[in-house]
Design brief:
The chain is mainly α and about 725 residues long. Helix content is about 55%, strand content about 0%. The chain has four domains: about 25-95, no CATH class; about 95-160, no CATH class; about 170-360 and about 685-705, no CATH class; about 395-605 and about 610-640, no CATH class. It has helices at about 45-50, 55-60, 75-80, 95-125, 125-140, 140-145, 175-180, 185-195, 205-215, 225-240, 250-270, 270-290, 295-305, 320-345, 370-390, 400-415, 420-425, 430-465, 465-475, 480-500, 510-530, 540-560, 560-585, 595-600, 620-635, 660-665, 700-705, and strands at about 640, 650. A hairpin with a 6-residue loop joins strand 1 and strand 2. InterPro entries: AtrR-like (IPR050987), Zn2-C6_fun-type_DNA-bd_sf (IPR036864), Zn2Cys6_DnaBD (IPR001138).
């Protein structure tokens, strides 16, 4: 028997004539492709699970695409298949963004109604307030109750919601378009004012860009103007309205501001780099009206810049090189505003705004003078921010003081010789160039004074616990203190020359704050000398006259600006005290500062002092004046105090979380950061300023800003 087994089956027997074909393999079911229609808004469950989790048994059996949300109401296909509860947070027929904006509008309306109800409760009598309170408790809807409420005659004078806080639904966009169409000449004037007043110091829109926007406005189809163009137009007209209130009334400027705020959200989505420019102009509008929401717009602009990659050194592939360079320059303007405003208002910042090397231009070039000055302004602003960050620790070391003084001196030494302070005091220069260079030096001198004021605040803090330690600290910092007072002298000289040249703008925060602080420092120095010098007021004479020059600039600004008027009221008693002392001495005339002295070669280093500049002990009127002026010099830093039970400070004027009600858009606040406000601006446990610094307000419209103005002229 053969043990070999055949490896293959035996061939079929040809005699049988029957062939058996092997069975075919089972056919695979064809994959069924089901096209999915666009879903307007998915339900919450599907959005949370990315709408890709279907029934595994169904998928395995039929090889179909996993069930996805089809937007069906009341239950979508996926939730019905898996047996889950289907919940929508978007109304039928609405998109997610549209629904979010409607919710923001509803919150705005409810907030306005709540403020109106609160006003009625405060304004009415006890009986009326009690009656209104009972109706409020039973009212199902607050806005409808207030709209149907019959007011007593005493309540009919209820003021409307300020325009800067109006709900978005009340922004009259058709009215804005009609005004633009019917007032083409005023719009051209506004664009011309913008180019004259802002381009030299802040890079936002170039003249060519502004001309391009203006060309679109002047077309017959202005009523069909795209939203982004309208937003940019309104922001330019809003800032320009502050420079010619006779031809562009404040009500128009306020309307344009509200319209730009209303349209900014869409501009962020469509053209984020252009939205940064609008943020910059909104900042300037709020700086003029002295509203701290300007700081929020700074953070919004910086947040968009971070999301667009402007903080890196390389141009992103999706942005062309020219747009990249232009956006870097706008970013530099935001950093300038951030350091400058935070340092003057005392708003702490946990981290500095970063700039790439692209924002720094090369050496001074006459053909690009504006870029040079903008860059130098920004460098000074960054040094100011460095001084402000020292408030993280109430004590100030000598090494820190020396480091900041070295930075300031290095900046000055790097200036071209023809732009030095001594060269700028002569009148043989081009008037516009002299004014611009003067502002540059005023900002630099203000930074020296900021360091002096920071030392004063440190002395105030230390003197509450150990007066000997405080005296030792300020004696070690004598040179920096003397430099601060000398910087006040030079600032007063520059401001007086600017006033004579027509370079002072009444609403300019640089002019207002610098004249106020210079006057404070010079008055303190004058009264300090009156206590310690037996030959006072014969020597020195300059501080007396220069304090009067600084006060004159402040009074000039006070005719328009409410914060300047508040500063003037604060310093008036000390100026009267000085005048009375000089009148009693019979030497008032000799205290005047001549024009020749203002233009003479300045001494860049302070004269030596026999007594350190800290408040002397005593009860005379001069001693009391010194103590109060010393306290004014320490503001706003003297408001900082160590928190109980820890080393971290309780920062009074810490910058707030972005104010959604004022900004007017709430859907895309993730532009500020990765889904949350930037870490550089959000304090711990703070929602707003606990105290508005120096008379600023959270929001202030143009009409409110001009309530007590004696004139509408800015110069």
């Amino acid at each position: 028997m053969n043990s070999d087994r055949p490896l293959l089956p035996a061939p079929p027997d040809p005699r049988s004539r029957k062939f058996h074909r092997p069975p075919l393999p089972p056919a695979r079911p064809l994959r069924q492709r089901i096209s999915r229609s666009l879903t307007l808004a998915a339900c919450l469950i599907c959005r949370h699970k990315k709408t890709k989790v279907g029934d595994s048994s169904i998928c395995a059996a039929s090889f179909v695409t996993p069930i996805q949300c089809d937007g069906a109401r009341p239950t979508c296909a996926r939730c019905k298949a898996v047996g889950e509860k289907c919940v929508y947070d978007v109304g039928q027929g609405e998109r997610k963004a549209e629904s979010a904006k409607n919710r923001v509008d509803s919150v705005e309306r409810d907030f306005a109604s709540a403020m109106q109800a609160l006003h009625l409760l405060h304004r009415g009598s006890d009986k009326e307030a009690e009656h209104l309170y009972r109706r409020l408790r039973l009212a199902p809807d607050l806005p409808s109750l207030l709209s149907n409420l019959t007011l007593a005659p005493s309540e009919t004078a209820l003021p409307p919601v300020p325009p800067a806080q109006q709900p978005l639904a009340q922004v009259d966009i058709p009215g804005v378009l009609r005004y633009i169409h019917d007032n083409q000449e005023k719009i051209r004037r506004a664009f011309s004012l913008y180019a004259e007043r802002t381009i030299n110091l802040f890079h936002v829109y170039t003249e060519d860009e502004a001309a391009g926007i203006l060309a679109q406005i002047c077309e017959p189809s202005v009523y069909n103007m795209p939203g982004p163009v309208l937003c940019e137009t309104c922001s330019i007209v809003a800032i320009a309205s502050h420079f010619d209130r006779h031809r562009i009334p404040p009500s128009v400027g306020e309307l344009m501001y509200n319209a730009a705020k209303h349209l900014l959200d869409d501009l962020v989505l469509q053209k984020p780099l252009r939205a940064i420019k609008v943020c910059a102009l909104m900042i300037l509008c709020n700086v003029i009206t002295k509203a701290t929401v300007a700081l929020t717009y700074i953070d919004v602009g910086l947040g968009i810049a971070r999301r667009q990659g402007l903080s890196s050194k390389k141009c992103p592939p999706n942005v062309d090189q020219d747009s990249w360079i232009d956006a870097q320059k706008v970013l530099r303007s935001l950093v300038l505003c951030k350091g400058w405003l935070e340092s003057t208002l005392g708003c702490s910042s946990d981290e500095p705004a970063l700039l790439s090397d692209a924002v720094y231009t090369g050496a001074y070039d006459v053909l690009d003078a504006a870029e040079f000055f903008r860059t130098e302004f920004t460098k000074i602003s960054i040094i100011k921010a460095k001084i402000l960050r020292t408030t993280a620790n109430p004590n100030l070391s000598q090494n820190t003081i020396d480091s900041i003084r070295a930075d300031l001196q290095s900046w000055y030494n790097a200036l071209p010789v023809k732009l030095r302070l001594s060269e700028n005091l002569h009148r043989d220069k081009d008037p516009q160039t002299r004014i611009t260079v003067s502002y540059l030096h005023v900002l630099h001198l203000g930074t020296i004074m900021l360091l002096h004021r920071r030392i004063v605040s440190c002395y105030v803090h230390l003197s509450t616990g150990d007066s000997d330690c405080a005296r030792i600290m300020i004696q070690e910092a004598t040179q920096a203190v003397d430099e601060g007072v000398h910087a006040a002298r030079l600032s007063a000289r520059l401001l007086a020359l600017l006033l004579d040249d027509g370079g002072i703008t009444r609403h300019c925060w640089i002019c207002i704050f610098q004249s106020y602080m210079s006057c404070c420092a010079l008055l303190f120095s004058t009264f300090h000398d009156a206590i310690h010098r037996p030959d006072w007021p014969l020597q020195p004479r300059s501080d007396i006259g220069l304090s009067e020059k600084a006060f004159k600039v402040l009074s000039f600004c006070a005719k328009l600006d409410p914060v300047a008027a508040s500063f003037e009221r604060t310093l008036s008693p000390y100026m009267r005290l000085l005048q009375d002392a000089l009148k009693a001495d019979g030497s008032k005339k000799s205290a005047d500062v001549s024009a020749a002295f203002l233009e003479s070669e300045p001494a860049l280093s302070p004269p030596p002092r026999s007594q350190p500049l800290f408040p002397p002990n005593g009860s005379t009127v001069f001693h009391q004046a010194c103590a109060m002026l010393f306290k004014l010099l320490s503001e706003p830093f003297s408001s900082y105090a160590p928190a109980a039970g820890g080393n971290k400070q309780n920062k009074l004027n810490e910058q707030a979380t972005p104010n959604i009600d004022e900004l007017g858009f709430g859907m895309h606040m993730d532009w500020i950061g990765a889904g949350q406000p930037s870490s550089s601006s959000v304090p711990e446990g703070m929602a707003s300023f606990e105290k508005q610094p120096f008379g600023w307000r959270l929001v202030r419209g143009s009409t409110e800003y001009l309530e007590a103005a004696q004139t509408l002229d800015i110069s």
